[in-house]
Design a protein that fits this description.
The complex is a heterodimer of chains A (about 525) and B (about 325).
Chain A: H1 2-13, H2 17-30, H3 33-43, H4 54-65, H5 69-79, H6 82-89, H7 101-111, H8 116-127, H9 132-143, H10 152-163, H11 167-174, H12 185-190, E1 205-209, E2 222-228, E3 231-238, E4 241-246, H13 262-265, E5 270-280, E6 283-284, H14 287-291, H15 301-306, E7 309-319, E8 322-323, H16 329-341, E9 349-351, H17 360-368, E10 375-382, E11 390-400, E12 404-415, E13 424-433, E14 436-443, H18 449-462, E15 465-467, E16 470-472, E17 478-483, E18 485-488, E19 496-499, E20 502-506, H19 518-528
Chain B: E1 6-7, E2 12-14, E3 19-21, E4 29-31, E5 46-50, H1 54-61, E6 66-69, E7 75-77, E8 80-86, E9 94-100, E10 103-107, E11 129-134, H2 146-162, E12 166-170, H3 176-183, E13 191-193, H4 195-206, E14 215-216, E15 230-233, H5 241-244, E16 249-254, H6 261-267, E17 271-273, H7 281-291, E18 295-301, H8 303-312, E19 316-319
Parallel strand pairs in B: 3-4, 4-5, 5-6, 10-11, 11-18, 12-15, 12-16, 13-14, 13-15, 16-17, 18-19
Antiparallel strand pairs in B: 1-2, 2-3, 7-8, 8-9, 9-10
Classes of the chains: A alpha+beta (about 525), B alpha/beta (about 325).
The structure holds zinc ion (ZN) (2 copies).
């Protein structure tokens, strides 16, 4: 695993994408095909099955290191990563073994067949055979994902360099629900039919936020649609089966069983890009309704009737089994419209209508209606644009509405972890209610590192009380909190829960008695909840 | 028996001798463990420090009333007897031993137990009560042995030099920078220094410390005049326009915090070398044990966890709040600790 550790270190240490790409490309040319495949799998979130619980790993590591459990936990809270904590606290390895990445993954798989005592012996022996980085990586394999700042884009670029194939094709090949157990390097990368796998999705085309109309040219060249506030999804109908993929390459088919009937109405060889929305009476419900269904692998009946979903179709990527992504948007939408028209209204599929406009001012007025329609804003797509892959500028733009905001008072602070250990970055905010302060949300992003450092120094000097890692601070600082949505929540003291709260800015200019009140918050809830 | 030392909002105080140790607010009489700015502050009536610490204090604090004393020499102040003992933290740094009527307390200041090749090596001092720093008081901190560390830095520098890149290494101006200077292989290429570091180099050279030849970075100096150079810079200079003059470069940061992957990534340097002038977990535990103290006060660092750990090990352990900054990775370079 030495070469994998070297690859990891080269990627992890550098901030330069060129260095990371070169490290990966080197590796893809020198590692064994099995190791290459596993590396792609790990870096794209396909990890081996967990065979040992995190709790057991913690116990064993603390035991070997001679530490009480609480001290291990304390260390873990500072490091922020279980595998790293384990690698750091264990005594140095007393022997060395250089095996391939695939060997160690196989080793982990065999552990699952063993009795608990033997498993433990196997893990301890591995820990004692691996030097620091390799030990960390081995433990990472046991505990979960490899988020190390390598995007899928970077991997495809490196693969393109190593294999001489072009990037869009490689991007497509890497999608879908393959694992190193179901395919090989040759079948996945070297073979040239990306649709061999019936469930394989196309890469999503993503837009940047619009930053002005100056470069857009004539309004007539553009098609506008609502940007619906649901879950972006790609519906694939091939060979009599359907698959629904999220943008994060999660297979969501079973979470939205009502979409299964679309198999009966849409021909095989159809792939639709759209938005999964909770929808009743020809109207999308707010994201809050859909939220109840997120995170559930299967859906109880009550939710199916309470928050039924549809697919709001944006685009057609495959038609009659043909990849039509290179055709102009206009033509793809015409085909899409024809397909949707043949599906009865009782089925959960709608076409996301175009928003008519003649001038940019018309469009701006249309955008102002977004919240009433439970939409996040508008999408602008050039009529002759192909369906590209990944986030690209030029042909597609999103024009989101501004977030909701409220000015709140910071009352508690807590240190972050990992990258932000030792900085106070997680704050609890309150609104005023008479002479009281009512906490209503936490937020931990949105400030610059410099601001976090400044607040950290202030928190250290002004701590009123400690509750474990949490510090109570005097209510002196006001922050503008932005959020995407709000809903009633009996579990919270304030009676509300926010969606995506973050700090928009530090309002140094605002005294605490000008911060917003609980009544203000309730009014926002009444209007937008 | 009355406490030999008490903890006040001005700093650690000795009632029997009416003096403070490393106070952070103006007092009449201050005993100083070492020259870092969070320990040696401006505004005290008179100072007492080791003769090794005095030059850097004069350099930084200007015209101050400063008496000096050598390691191990006992001085009577009021009813207290004080002496300074090597702390191994930076050249001249000391632990301060205070004895009153047979009761001995020791203030560690900042310390490390492994020899760095430059500072006077740490000496354990027997005492009843030990006031210890614990900047790195968690078992996740274990320092790379000096020889391996030196090899890592030399390899990094040599590789960069061969590839036509300047090596820019961020390190605190007093102690860390000079320690690195004495260990790197100066045959690899020229060594350039940032002003704050070169000033401290001059002070230490005057004291008789042998440092390799260094060149202060002035406006006409760049990678063109000094190809393959190692540039020692204060952490705050990394990534600034000052650093951009060196053309294609690799940046590295030398700190104990580099043991944590998250912090390494946050620093956004190309490399992180794990090197600290504070004791690591093993060092802290060994040092405390060697004092024979039964009472321990933990200060600056992971105090609550460390206090709990020491209690579980059978010590009468307490937490003391102080204003010392430690080796803060999130602070600008003035907090060099
Ligand atoms: Zn110091
Ligand atoms: Zn310090």
């Amino acid at each position: 695993m030495k070469d994998f550790a070297t690859l990891f270190t080269r990627i992890d240490e550098s901030t330069k994408t060129t260095v990371k790409t070169a490290a990966l490309a080197d590796y893809f040319q020198t590692a064994t095909p099995e190791d290459r495949l596993w590396t792609i799998a790990l870096f794209t979130g396909r990890r081996p099955k967990r065979t040992i619980t995190a709790t057991r790993l913690r116990e064993w590591a603390a035991e070997v290191a001679g530490l009480p459990d609480w001290l291990f936990e304390e260390s873990y809270s500072i490091v922020g990563d279980l595998a790293e904590t384990i690698a750091l606290v264990l005594p140095p390895a007393t022997k060395t073994e250089d095996q391939t990445l695939t060997h160690w993954i196989g080793y982990i798989k065999t552990l699952s067949t063993l009795e608990d005592d033997d498993r433990k012996a196997g893990i301890l022996d591995a820990w004692n055979s691996l030097p620091n980085t390799e030990r960390f990586l081995f433990t990472k394999l046991l505990t979960g994902g490899f988020r190390i700042g390598v995007s899928a884009k970077l991997i495809t670029r490196a693969l393109a360099q190593a294999t001489g194939q072009d990037e869009p094709q490689l991007t497509h090949k890497l999608m879908g629900n393959w694992t190193p157990d179901t395919t090989t390097w040759d079948a996945l990368i070297e073979a040239d039919d990306p649709t061999a796998d019936l469930s394989r999705p196309y890469p999503f085309y993503l837009a940047y936020q619009l930053d002005g109309f100056d470069d857009l040219g004539a309004p007539a060249d553009w098609n506008a649609e609502r940007k619906w506030d649901g879950i972006r999804g790609q519906l694939i109908i091939r060979g009599g089966e359907h698959h629904l993929w999220s943008r994060g390459e999660d297979l969501m088919t079973d979470r939205f069983p009502e979409l299964a009937q679309l198999c009966d109405y849409l021909p095989g060889g159809t792939v639709i890009d759209g938005e999964v929305l909770a929808f009743t009476d020809e109207r999308p419900l707010s994201f809050n309704a859909l939220q109840k269904r997120i995170g559930r692998k299967t859906v109880p009946k009550k939710l199916l009737t309470g928050a039924p979903v549809i697919l709001m179709a944006y685009d057609l990527l495959e038609h009659d089994g043909k990849d039509i992504r290179d055709m102009p948007l206009q033509e793809r939408r015409e085909s899409l419209q024809t397909l949707v028209a043949e599906v009865p209204d009782t089925a959960p599929l709608r076409l996301s209508a175009s928003v008519p406009f003649k001038t940019w001012d018309d469009l701006s007025a249309a955008r102002d209606q977004s919240r009433d329609l439970n939409a996040e804003g508008l999408m602008l797509k050039r009529r002759d644009s192909p369906y590209l892959s990944g986030r690209k500028r030029g042909d597609w733009w999103k024009w989101k509405i501004d977030p909701l905001t409220i000015d709140a008072v910071m009352i508690y602070a807590q240190a972050g972890h990992g990258r932000r250990a030792n900085l106070f970055t997680d704050y609890t905010f309150a609104v005023r209610n008479g002479n009281d302060l009512v906490p209503f949300t936490k937020a931990y992003s949105g400030l610059t590192d410099k601001e976090f450092r400044e607040i950290t120094a202030w928190v250290r000097k002004n701590t009123l009380q400690r509750f474990g890692p949490v510090r109570q601070v005097p209510p002196e600082h006001v922050f503008e909190i932005a959020f995407e949505g709000i809903q009633a929540s009996p579990r919270h003291k304030s009676g509300v829960a926010l969606r995506f709260p973050r700090m928009l800015r530090w309002r140094r200019d605002k005294p605490v008695d000008e911060a917003n009140t609980l009544d203000d918050l309730k009014e926002i809830l009444a209007t937008y909840g | 028996m009355a406490d030999v030392l008490t903890f006040t909002d001005r700093g650690i105080y000795c009632p029997a001798g009416d003096f403070y140790i490393d106070p952070w607010k103006p007092v009449d009489r201050a005993l100083i463990t070492h020259g870092h700015s969070d320990h040696a502050r401006w505004g005290m009536g008179r100072y007492l420090a080791t003769s090794g610490t005095a030059p850097v204090m004069r350099h930084r604090l200007g015209d101050i009333t400063l008496e000096t004393v050598d390691y191990g020499v006992k001085t009577r102040i009021g009813d207290a007897t004080v002496s300074f003992h090597p702390a191994g933290h930076v050249p001249g740094s000391a632990q301060i031993r205070v004895a009153v009527k047979g009761e001995v307390w020791v203030v560690s200041g900042d310390y490390k137990t492994v020899a760095d090749g430059l500072s006077e090596p740490f000496e354990p001092v027997q005492c009843h009560a030990f006031i210890t720093e614990c900047t790195f008081g968690l078992p996740i901190f274990k320092w790379t042995p000096q020889d391996i560390l030196t090899q890592q830095i030399n390899d990094w520098w040599a590789t960069n030099a061969a590839a036509g890149r300047t090596s820019i290494l961020g390190a605190y101006a007093l102690g860390k920078a000079q320690r690195l200077l004495t260990t790197v292989n100066s045959a690899i290429g020229p060594i350039l220094t940032h002003g704050a570091i070169e000033n401290t180099n001059a002070v230490l050279r005057d004291q008789g410390f042998a440092l390799p030849r260094t060149t202060l970075v002035t406006p006409e100096i760049s990678h063109k005049t000094h190809p393959g150079a190692l540039v020692l810079a204060t952490p705050s200079a990394l990534g600034t326009t000052w650093a951009r003059r060196f053309g294609p470069s690799s940046t590295a940061f030398a700190s104990g915090w580099m043991a944590l992957r998250g912090v390494r990534r946050r620093r956004a340097a190309d490399r992180g070398f794990i090197v600290s002038d504070h004791a690591d977990w093993e060092g802290l535990n060994a040092a405390i044990k060697a004092t024979g103290a039964s009472k321990v006060f933990a200060t600056h660092g992971y105090t609550s966890a460390f206090q709990k750990w020491l209690s579980s090990e059978g010590y009468d352990a307490h937490i003391v709040s102080t204003d010392y900054q430690g080796e803060g990775f999130d602070q600008a370079d003035e907090a060099e600790a």
